[in-house]
Amino acid sequence: MPAVVIIGSQWGDEGKGKITDYYAEKADIVVRFQGGNNAGHTVVIGEETYKFHLIPSGTIQNKQVIIGNGCVIDPKVLLQEIELLKSKNFKIDLKISSNAHVIFPYHNLLDGLEEKFKGKLSAGTTKRGIGPCYQDKIARFGIKIFDLLHEDILRTKLEQNVMLKQKLLEIYKDKTILNKEKLIHEFLEYGEKLRPYVNETPYFINKALDEHKKILFEGAQGALLSIDHGIYPRTTSSNTCSGGACTGAGVGPTRINKVIGVMKAYLSRVGTGPVPTEIIGENEEIANHIREKGHEYGTTTGRPRRIGWLDLVAVKYARMISNIDAIAITKLDTLGGLEKLKICIAYMIENEKKETDIMPTNMLENCEPIYIEMQGWEDKSPDEWNKIAEKGYGAIPENMKGYLNKIQDYLKIPFCLISIGPRRADTIQLQKIF
Ligand code: IMP
């Protein structure tokens, strides 16, 4: 299995960082293929917690890591992450695609202004400039990593961009004056610092596949945030599905051997938009309990995440659009201590008085979840969960097995991994991927 894609099968924050780190042990290379520093990947090793936004999670396994052409890069953030890793004595074996696009400060500024302007239609973005940077890419105004290494190109492109963005800022009644020369100077400096890492990454990746190297493609965000298949316009601006790995890294679809969907045992959402299974109103205490226990606060923005019951209609949809082969389920321990658990298995579309298990991407706000109720399992201490993980699947609580069986019956795909705690050792592997 030389090429495995790991993606989120919900609204992001499913625990992809931990799963990628876990499987990266056996991989040679870890590649990110979309998104930017809107992502937040948390990896816990021993007593240390590492949070990354851009660098692929495999880096703390000292693996070769690649930021692919499909990503958008804020060079300042990337350089800070590189410095942090160096200070902790990690090996930095990083390659950055010359074709990845660059986030400029005006993108961050416009992200906030656009959100405000959109009002009810805003997505609640991370305000990291992701959307505006991808807009420039698609409109072919974008500035790529390559351009930071060539002053003449950077100058020509920035001249146009600064002029246009200045007008846009005026339209949004923002008083910031963009300083083109300062930007040129600052970004050429970033370019120089990044130069040693810049690479024609598709050649590197495809050659590695020819040599049967094991590659993990690490997705960011989740299926329902996909620009093409998500709950538009409350999405991110990149393709979060497995297909994104092909375009975002430069590999053909038939080179991908396996797709792993990461799924949390419940769900969470940061940002706006409909979440049919959100736990609100009289059950808010349950949501608060899960949020606190599961540390459900944004890695990037610190925002409290909205909490919901597991929505299998949504995961089944994610399974289809990404052809997920196996599920890695996370945070089962977080649900410990809840007497009853709910799983959404269909929706009732209000206006049409019709039941469906097809994801109504355009009218999710009109959907009422139809639940089955399951028995919960007892709460345990982190050490107790750890001991269970050591013993393996047979040792997990019976009701947890019931919960997992129900999910498997519905999705008709196996679990490859069960995570019952944040650390590597709190993991039960059911399927090897390499
Ligand atoms: P953007 O990607 O910052 O433009 O934000 C667009 C939408 O995606 C917003 O609803 C964000 O909250 C959401 N989003 C972006 N990145 C993440 C992530 O890593 N985890 C969860 N949600 C995210």
Can you tell me about this structure?
There is one protein chain. The protein is an alpha/beta fold and 434 residues long. It folds into three domains: 3-97 and 199-259, Adenylosuccinate Synthetase, subunit A, domain 1 (Adenylosuccinate Synthetase, Chain A, domain 1, 3-Layer(aba) Sandwich), CATH 3.40.440.10; 101-194, Adenylosuccinate Synthetase, subunit A, domain 2 (Orthogonal Bundle); 262-429, Adenylosuccinate Synthetase, subunit A, domain 3 (Adenylosuccinate Synthetase, Chain A, domain 3, Alpha-Beta Complex). 33% of the residues lie in helices and 20% in strands. The strands form five sheets. It has a ten-stranded mixed β-sheet, with helices on both faces. Strands 14, 16, 17 and 18 form a four-stranded mixed β-sheet that branches. Strands 3-4 form a two-stranded antiparallel sheet. Helix 3 (105-118) packs across helix 4 and helix 5 packs across helix 6. The model has no long low-confidence stretch (mean pLDDT 96). Inosinic acid binds next to helix 4.
